[in-house]
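Re: beginner question about structure tokens

> Can someone show what the tokenized structure looks like for a real chain? I only ever see the sequence side.

Sure, here's an example I had lying around. Input first:
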Amino acid sequence: MTGILPTLIASMDDLARNHNDVLAQSADGPVAVVVNNRPVFYVMSPQAMQAMLLRGLLTGGESHNATIGTLVQARPATGIATSAVLTVDVTEKKHAKSAPSKRAHNAVFSAARDGGGTGRGALDKFHLQADFEALADDLLAFERRRVARGELSNASVAILRQRLDLHILPVLKKVRPNEVTCNTLDDVVDRLGAAGLSATTVSQYMVAVRKLLKIAVRRGLLLEIPEFPKVVTKNKPRSMFSVRDYRKLIVTARQLSTDRRSAPQVKVEGGTRERFWVPTKYLQLPPDMAWVIAFMVNSFVRPSDIRQLRNKHVEVVRGAHNYLRLNLPESKRHDKPIVTMRPAVRVFEQALGRAQATGHGGPDDYVFLPELRDRQQALSILGFWFKWVLREAGMEEVDHLDRKRTLYSLRHTAIMYRLLYGQGIDTLTLARNARTSVQMIERFYASSLTGEMNVGMLHSKRSGAGTR
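And the corresponding structure tokens:
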């Protein structure tokens, strides 16, 4: 049956229920029977087989293990006098990788996609299941099952959904899964590059594309995943603050809070400020900003941790060492407690005292800005305050290496201080406590260390060692 395309697509269930009707609709041509959307064999009526033999389209040597079989009838046949049919196995062998084999395989799916005007029910079903929007729905359903198993967070699924809608589907929905080539993937990368995304972000988008194509292969809509374009990523550590700059940030935040100054008019519409996105009561800086800066530099937490940190997550430990034990909810697959530096204890107790004085401070209340139940808004306000403090402290929003200074820079500062000033600390202990990996420490933190940063360690010598 080389080169012969089916005139009809039918599921195994349809064929078993009423094979006579299926064969009657085939217009005396072969019927591709699909299981799980994959054609597994052809079925032909005796009339179609005879016609093909007469036309020389089917010979004994090209029958591909053709066998004459008889379908069991559940009721008297109607429309066709006999139930004898020819079945031809077209199930793809896993090891078949030759170019002719690939072309023949894709031809089957092209026929399934573009088949004739009969049997519209089965064909429409195949159409609906053979495009990238349907595959995207399948992928999201699969990821939600991973969330239910605790393997993934809901936020990750939301990010995937956004990436699919924003830049992936606008390109892929223009082609069928079996039409995807290296050029198609290049088009996706070009769109991402035109949107100004970094190489790292482009790589993350392409991970989502690969997941889509894996589903297409698993469902038999694509023979194999094409070669992916190479995206070269470059590690770019976040900005950090020197000890001098860190102290200046704290002093500036405290001064702004004491002076009760209002935020500058930095967002303008038509020359005058008409509506500010920060509520009026937060245009003056409370002590929370200075506390957050000091807390983050002494606790290794992420800004997202600050957003969800409640009093019940904090345990004060006093003994040979005074510190806080932070039992935060799981983040980025890490769930171990975080041990803070000593100054974090004082910050927490000050924040808790002020919260209790204003009717907050319960176990379920948040440590910072406890009056705000909308925690995304709370984090946005902290980001706004941080930029304000940077400007008042005379610091640019980017450092000398063109790296943005954000709240996340405070976490970077905390880890870098331990690498610079911690005595004999090993990266495994630091990584575990900061809820990250040794690889991330080496790629994004230790990678920015220079010899001059640790000149004291470089110049140190063991007791009794001679000079050179």
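Each token stands for a local structural state, so reading them left to right follows the chain. Confidence is low (pLDDT under 50) at residues 60-99, 105-129, 267-276.
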